[in-house]
Amino acid sequence: MRFIYFFSLVLLAFILQTSIYFTLPFNINIHFIFIFIISFSILHGSLYGVIFGFLLGLIFDVFFNYFLGTYALYGVLIGYLSPILFSSYYKESVLPPIYLISLYLFAYYFIDFAIYFFQDEHITVKIMQFSLLNIFFNVLVTIFIHLIFVTIYNKFENRHNKFKKIFKRSRR
Amino acid sequence: MNFSENKLIFYGLLLISISLFLFTSNKGSISFINNTIGVIVVPFEKAIVSISSFSKHQYDLVVNKENLVIQNNAYFEQLEMLKLENNRLKHLDIENKKLSALLATSQKNPTFDKTFSNVIGIENKDNSSFFIIDKGSSDNIFVNMPIISSGGLVGRVYDVGYNYSKILPITNINSSISVLSPRTSDIGILTSESILPDSRLLVKYLDLNSELVSGDEIVTSYLSNFFPENLLVAYVDDVFIEDDGLTKTAIVTPVVDFKQLQHLLIITNYTNKDFINKKGGQ
Known about the structure:
Strand order of the largest sheet of chain B: 1-2-5-4-3-12
Radius of gyration of chain B: 23 Å
Strand content of chain A: under 5%
Largest sheet of chain A: none
Number of helices of chain A: 5
Low-confidence stretches of chain B: none
Strand content of chain B: 25-35%
Number of helices of chain B: 3
Low-confidence stretches of chain A: none
Order of helices and strands of chain B: HHHEEEEEEEEEEEE
Number of strands of chain B: 12
CATH class of chain A: Mainly Alpha
Structural class of chain B: alpha+beta
Largest interface: A-B, 46 and 52 residues
Structural class of chain A: mainly alpha
Oligomer: heterodimer
Mean pLDDT of chain B: 83
Largest sheet of chain B: 6 strands, antiparallel, barrel
Distance between the termini of chain A: 27 Å
Radius of gyration of chain A: 18 Å
Shape of chain B: globular
Shape of chain A: globular
CATH class of one domain in chain B: Mainly Beta
């Protein structure tokens, strides 16, 4: 059950990322891959987060990269760092994913910004507006997706605890 | 879960991804990993695309029925006009063939074999860098085949898997193709301006004396290795002189609407054998 949940989430993140582009206004890019890795790794720990990030990154590499490995590297790093950076918060809290997605996207767009900073003022201003708009919408989607993940996680945990109790009783 | 075990897996995967990055960067991608993942993932993508197009179709049937009828009538009129035009062109074609046979010159516009395919995924990134389509090496698609849609050039095949292919569109910042204006016969290089999604397409390195004006057609030139001649690419919006004062640059809009790209035609009989399955820029 857990494996099916795991792999279906990987597929879902990839499909959402690649096929929802047709419908969004203002050229907004929702980075579903980042959001899924952050939420998943915060709830399930950095071990599962790292494997999740690696698989998702590898699939993305195969289809959309010039060579394998870069997105897989991002996935591994994000999956490992996300649960560690804000470990003092509750898992169910929405704040750590919001901080993390803003941080990652800021880093993501800062590279483009830095490249064009010395070349073209016009494009630099455009990148700033575009990245701020994107961070705002990504944060909105992050809240929504993290809440869904938390409800699923709680159901899993309850069922797990029930199983544990049953086993303990039978042992007695 | 033990903390040291946790760290071990982290470092292991980190090492794997870095080694993948290092060892696949020069030799192209590893076809085994690509094809395995393609075979698993592509059917899901196809299913999602077909479901979404089906639901859009049903929605159109119910909600946009009146618009569809009006559109249909407009298309009907257009079809009649095009039929007339086509008849005229057929006569011209026959005449052209006779005359060129008399002059013993080769035909400039050969007929192409085309294969139909659907877009099943777009990288949700800022410069829309690759498209995935649902035809691969099992359908005799090879690298560097030119791709057209709705009368305009889309790009070329960049990489082929067993049941999918990657397309490098002309809006990609890494794509640069040689183009020509048939009216003034100026040659330039078509590139994308920046990594932003709605960034403009530019035709760079035009001659300073060129007389391009807005509204001019831009087609593929005879210098290109990958694209056939005289494929319509874009229309000129504006022309300006570069800051260095040495060349002119034209801002163009592509004929194809890259935001609503779904159906493509792959030209399968054009690509030179020297360039089949050779990766790299132009």
